[in-house]
Description:
This protein is α+β, with helices and mostly antiparallel strands. About 25% of the residues lie in helices and about 20% in strands. The strands form 7 sheets. Strands 13, 14, 15, 18 and 19 form a 5-stranded antiparallel sheet that branches. Strands 1-12-9-8 form a 4-stranded mixed sheet, covered by helices on one side. A 4-stranded antiparallel sheet has the order 4-5-7-6, with helices on one face.
Amino acid sequence: MRILSLFLVVLTLASCGCGNGSSNHKNLKVFKYNQASGIASLDPAFSKDQATIWACNQLFNSLVQLDDNLQIQPAIAKSWTISEDGLTYTFALRNDVYFHNDSCFADKKGRRVVASDVVFSLTRITDNKVASPGAWIFNGKVAAAEPFVAVNDSTFQVKLSKPFPPLLGILSMQYCSVIPAEALTLYGSGFRAHPVGTGPFKFKNWKEGNALVMLKNENYFEELNGKKLPFIDGIKVSFIDNKKTEFLSFKQKQLDFISGLDAIYIDEVLEDNGELKKDLVGKFSLLKTAYLNTEYLGFLTTGKNEAENPFLNKKLRQALNYGFDRRELIRFLRNGVGKPSESGFTPYGLPSYDAEIKGYTYDAAKAKELLKESGYDTKKTLTLYTNETYKDIALFISKQLEQIGLKTKVELSQPAILREWMSQGKINWFRGSWLADYPDAENYFAVFYSGNGAPPNYTRFSNKAFDKLYEQALVETDDAKRYALYHDMDKIIIEEAPVIPLFYDEVLRFSQNNIKGLTPNALNLLNLKAVTIE
Length: 534
């Protein structure tokens, strides 16, 4: 079945005159990856999960994009300016960006992108009738009247209700992809399965649950070192839902790449320091980098009294933070994948990350001292709520806390139920994680701003000094000054300890040795336009 599927992909590519031509279709370069979770939609307005984001990143462009270091770079917009008051962003558009050829256009030939296309695309995200899960990215940020303006065909403006320095990061998200109104007119809701964009690859066909095929966009506008992108002829996405089968397919070189690794294979593939097993070195490549995800344990910081909620006691929260070894957790339970969260809540990989910030490290003596000062009755049992996936981590922490005199119990719940309890404030101590939506620490500190409900503020943390710094950061356009405010906020979170940061996650990418140019990034965004296959 897989051989037949790949044959159909090659036949599709060859029949479209891609790459080296139909007479040499055996030489076509097709990048193959698997999406175990499936893909719900190819409409960027619904790019709320990694599967959709990865596919949409090949098919569409936004005004701006992120490089591998998460720095903002031009895309459809070649340049931009920000008004002195921080309320108006003006973008100058390239004049060589064209939509993919498609039947939605009068002559079936993709036309040039103009500013009104950007207005249409971003306005659509905020349209209640569309019900895009990305509507939040503009809520409370853009002006109420005419937030998106086409000054002329090559000039586009975003107008804000108040300054918001992370805006460019938001505009790089796949939600903000530029699409043509003609495609929505022709395909309607069918646009989810017949996308038309400007990206380095164009849609060919999608047999849901079987395969998605994208072809090289011969008219793509970007170059690298004087050569037109993309370098490969196409992409084939399979939908093998069994992780064991997926990994076997990769080992048999039927897949060019897999991201992440199922827990059952970690010991088989990685040493306890996170490197490849010696017998696998040279068979395929491992790329590892920061992933903007902080795993943590959260405390509910509201309640009538400490009898009802013992975690109202700050010294108890601090004692727990000192009471276990994060480095051992990474080494023994994660085979060296990730870094211990010893510098606050915001993870390494963010531009504002500062390793010099001193968070919590394992210190049993300090933990015992704080526990004594807290006055907590150690005869009582603390309950930690988590789900099956994080059971081993919870039990590891529980066992280490026993050594400083704390009795703990691990309670397992279904993920959906756990989130509901966290949102309703029904549990006092819980496992959580925060994955960045865009590469700015504001996204992390929103978790602790008292003006936010749950989510994201599951701990109900409220601190006037923190709130003041957060509000100052929202209007500070100078990066260095804003980062200094972020560092001060992280120090407050460390001192007040509404959470126990566990570790900063990392991305593992495995690829075949003939795949070149597949670079990792801290958002785990899959970018295939500069990939080559040798």
